[in-house]
Amino acid sequence: MGELNLLLVDDEEMLIESLSRFFKRKSFNVFTAHGVEEGRKIIKTQDIQVMITDMRMPDGQGIDLIELLRSIAPAAFILCATGFSEEDEKTILEKGADAVIAKPFEKKILLEMILKRLTQ
Amino acid sequence: MRVGQKGLLGLLYGFGLMLSLALSIYSSFSQKTGVSAIEKLILHYQELDHTYLSLGSHQRKVHLVTQGMLGKSSTWTNELTKLLSDQLSVTEGSNPNIQKQRELLNNDELEEGSKKRRKALSKKIIHSLKEEKRFLFKKRKELLEKGPLIQKDALGGVKSILQLFTYYSLAMSVIFTAFVFLINLNKKNLHKIEKERKKRDFMLDALDCAILLVNKNQEIISYNKKCQQIWDLSLVKENLKLENLFERVMIESLEKSDGHDEVSFKESPLGRALGTPLLQRGISFQVQLRTLGLQQQWFQADCKSFKDELFLISLTNTTHLYEARELIKRQQASLVEQSKMTALGQMSGGMAHEINNPLAIISSEAEELLEIATEEGSVAADDATSISQNIKKTTDRITKIIRGLRIFSRTSGDEFHESSLYEIISEVLVMSSEKFKTKGVKFEVTLPYEEEELKEKDFSILCNEVQVIQVFVNLLNNAYDAVKEQRDRQITFEWKELLEAHLFLIQDNGPGIDENTAKKIFDPFFTTKKVGEGTGLGLSLSRSILEEHGGSLELVTSNEGALFQVKVPKNKGTDDELQKNQTKSKEDKWAS
């Protein structure tokens, strides 16, 4: 399957750290960004196949990154992890996300979703 | 009845007038001689008769004296002179001879005169006396012949009596008329006064307030009908005193939580004010009385004195006002609660995110630990330390956020407690910064001291903690609403320590507040937000909350954005202590 480029975007340092450790162990090539701007740069420079992004961040909305990645890589698998229960799931999906996951989530489930998609 | 009385009086008056008129007409016809003329005539006649009789006896005397008396001339001349004088006094001027005889008697010649001469004189006198007698006799005869005249005069007397009666009745009728007129006038006045009194009574009775008039000794002199709805005044004994009506009263008390206080009459504002100059200006207070229906009702009592002699007390039933006020109080409390929930509800959106995020970390770290343990059979000390540290840190974070949620479970109530201002502010800041962080708002906080120092300073204030938090949360929510449409969102929060108060400045870089809005911004229900977004109560409630705490909330005019200034007074207790210490040191200074 080769190494997949995975981008993690969240302003929570510890969460990024924990997820990054996990996905690295699962043989992903992990990129991390702590905000929208950082994420934008990585999307533009790297061939990102999987992205897990937070929705609300101090410097912008995760939705912008979803739109950007979808326009660059239509086949990319995009997951949106949000702490907001009332987040408008429909809009997020329309903008190009493949799924919306509510925080807190189980990493295993995340991994299963990614693997399922990649084997299709 | 009134008309009948009037008619009777008129009839009497008319009758009196007619009677006097008739009498005067009759007397004018019958009158010829006056009463005095008749009397004079009768008197004259009697005098003449008497004189005639005495003349007869004197004539005889003179004759005897003149015949037999040759000596002692003085005795008979004296007697004769007296006789003539008496005669003269009766019929003076009637007979010129008498005068002449008198002159003769006075003549000295008579003393020394001869017998012949005396005899001649005596003859003369006798002659003149005879003449006089004849004259008198004639006169008497004439008078006797006038008999019918006397009879006529008797009738004149009757007429005179009638005339007298006429005058009398005329005078009486005038007096009577005047009397009747006066009585009538008086009656009219009395009637007028009575009418006025009835009008006044009606006015007083129609009033919706009870009115009592009390004298110096606090005895009730007068009262209107309304009083009888409060007290059973039909059983009132004389000299009922004011304090019997007010025995024990409930008065409005601002200090007590239930709003009133039971006191005796003497302790009531009225009892205390009676007899003091206070009553001249008038006093007014709220009082609760048990009325006849045994209901406790509230009254507004207004009292005023007139020259410290009369006291007017009016009682207006204000029970409905009290009830309305209670209702407003309850509604206000529920509005405060509602507004609090709105403010905190707005905050809670950010909170959910901020709890879910750390939960995601904990969950992820725990999973990690489990995986390592399962896959490798054991967990390396390094991994265990790092993971558990992360979990601990994140848990602490959640705890802090949850603390902010305490407000949801608490009703604000009325109680004031000693609370740490630092804790209040940090709670507000935790909640707000979570929200602002996720909303991309640059939130700058300036504190008067370092955090550790602030903790130690222990700025405690007597306050309703929930309400104070609500004020700040509300102001920060407003600030967020002002900046959310801006490209660069910025909110600053500054805490300054002043001499007697804490000052908080909350500023945003939003579009600012125009002059018209600024005028109405603290009005209840005024809002610039869309329907459903704001209650329009936030600022007005915040201001009233701060005012209840002795503080203030002001909008400071600013060129950019809005700047709200909150003042919270420093704890009075510590102030008092400070002052006490200051005075003490001053005293010490003086002592030394």
Describe this structure in words.
The complex is a heterodimer of chains A (120) and B (592). By secondary structure, chain A is an alpha/beta fold. Chain A has one domain: Rossmann fold (3-Layer(aba) Sandwich). Chain A has five helices and seven strands. In chain A, the strands form two sheets. Chain A has a five-stranded parallel β-sheet, with helices on both faces. In chain A, strands 4-5 form a two-stranded antiparallel ribbon. In chain A, helix 2 packs parallel to helix 3. The longest helix of chain A has 13 residues. By secondary structure, chain B is α+β, with helices and mostly antiparallel strands. In chain B, the strands form three sheets. A seven-stranded antiparallel β-sheet of chain B has the order 2-1-7-6-5-3-4. In chain B, strands 9-11-12-14-13 form a five-stranded mixed β-sheet, with helices on one face. Chain B has a two-stranded antiparallel ribbon with strand order 8-10. In chain B, strand 3 and strand 4 form a beta hairpin. In chain B, helix 2 runs antiparallel to helix 3, helix 2 runs antiparallel to helix 6 and helix 12 runs antiparallel to helix 13. In chain B, 23% of the residues are buried. The C terminus of chain B is likely disordered. At the A-B interface, helix 1 and strand 4 of A face helix 12 and helix 13 of B.
Q: Count of helical segments of chain B?
A: 20
Biggest interface reads: A-B, 28 and 25 residues
Cα gyration radius of chain B (Å): 62 Å
What percent of the residues of chain A sit in helical stretches (DSSP H or I)? 40-55%
Beta strands of chain A, count:
7
Report strand % of chain B.
15-25%
How far is it from the N-terminal to the C-terminal residue of chain B, by CA?
95 Å
* CATH architecture annotation name of chain A: 3-Layer(aba) Sandwich
Order of helices and strands of chain A: EHEHEEEHEHEH
Roughly what fraction of the amino acids of chain A lie in strands?
25-35%
Distance between the termini of chain A: 13 Å
Side by side, the strands of the main sheet of chain B go: 2-1-7-6-5-3-4
Uncertain ranges of chain B: 31-36, 68-73, 90-94, 148-152, 574-592
CATH homologous group name of the largest domain in chain B: Histidine kinase-like ATPase, C-terminal domain
CATH topology of chain A: Rossmann fold
Quick one: CATH class of chain A? Answer: Alpha Beta
Largest sheet of chain B: 7 strands, antiparallel
Helix content of chain B: 55-70%
Mean pLDDT of chain A: 88
CATH superfamily of chain A: Response regulator
